[in-house]
Specification:
The chain is an alpha+beta fold. The protein has one domain. It is 26% helix and 28% strand. It is built from 3 helices and 8 strands. The strands form 2 sheets. Strands 1-2-5-4-3-8 form a 6-stranded mixed beta sheet. It has a two-stranded antiparallel sheet with strand order 6-7. A hairpin with a 2-residue loop joins strand 6 and strand 7. Helix 2 packs antiparallel against helix 3. The longest helix is centred in the first third of the chain and has 15 residues.
Amino acid sequence: MRTAPYAAPGSLDRLLRGLRSHIRTRRLPRPDRLMIATGSRTAGVEFTTGTGRERLARLVVWSMTLHQVAHATVLILPNSQLLVQVTGRGPVGLTITLHTTCALTELGSRVRQAQHAWVGPHRLVVNTPDTVSIDELATVLTTTRTTVAAPPVLGLTA
């Protein structure tokens, strides 16, 4: 009877130590969800709390610390959410995939005619994956910061 393959003893500890060290030494924001698969040496990092812009900013910061990041995969969902995924290499040979979502309205955009949306300079088709660079994601964050009104603080309006 064959048993399922298992990770060598201590490999989870080593992966966790490497990931925690990566977070601490680079002062990265803590993820809201973290899933580690020892057999494939992969980690899924998800940002789910805060505003969509804050989640997207945390994903951009993390992605700048990973190696072999070619681009971000973006997808407009039918519910007007932007889904963003970035994959790169982290500490101890760990492949890290970052995930988050952001409402299009937080980026000053909306789905037009149920077919596409403009996110910064990119025209994205609903339900069709596309790729953008990390720099382009950062640019979308900085340009929308000046075009989208900030929510009132403690009920005060400007």
